[in-house]
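[Structure tokenization] protein backbone as discrete codes
[Encoding] learned vocabulary of local backbone shapes
[Protein] chain in single-letter code, fold in tokens
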Amino acid sequence: MPQPPWKAWYKLARWRALRLRIFVRDLYTCQRKGCGRVEPNTSLLVCDHVIPHRGDERLFWDEANLQTLCKSCHDSVKQAEEQASLHTRGVWD
């Protein structure tokens, strides 16, 4: 099965530059309430979509829809929330 086109957006220089801008804007600090971890190592940070983009290009590139999360918060709490809401938002494209 071919990958959806939006997966390739994560490989673009435009995404890498935007991701770094968000980290700088957020002072390399996890935005998750109760965390606030400051992480200078960007490989341990995730530029997270507040509202899942689900292939919507406008949401994908919207800086107001992006936040810095530490990898730990993203991979545990955020992913659990998204998995729990799968039934309400349909199938990923």
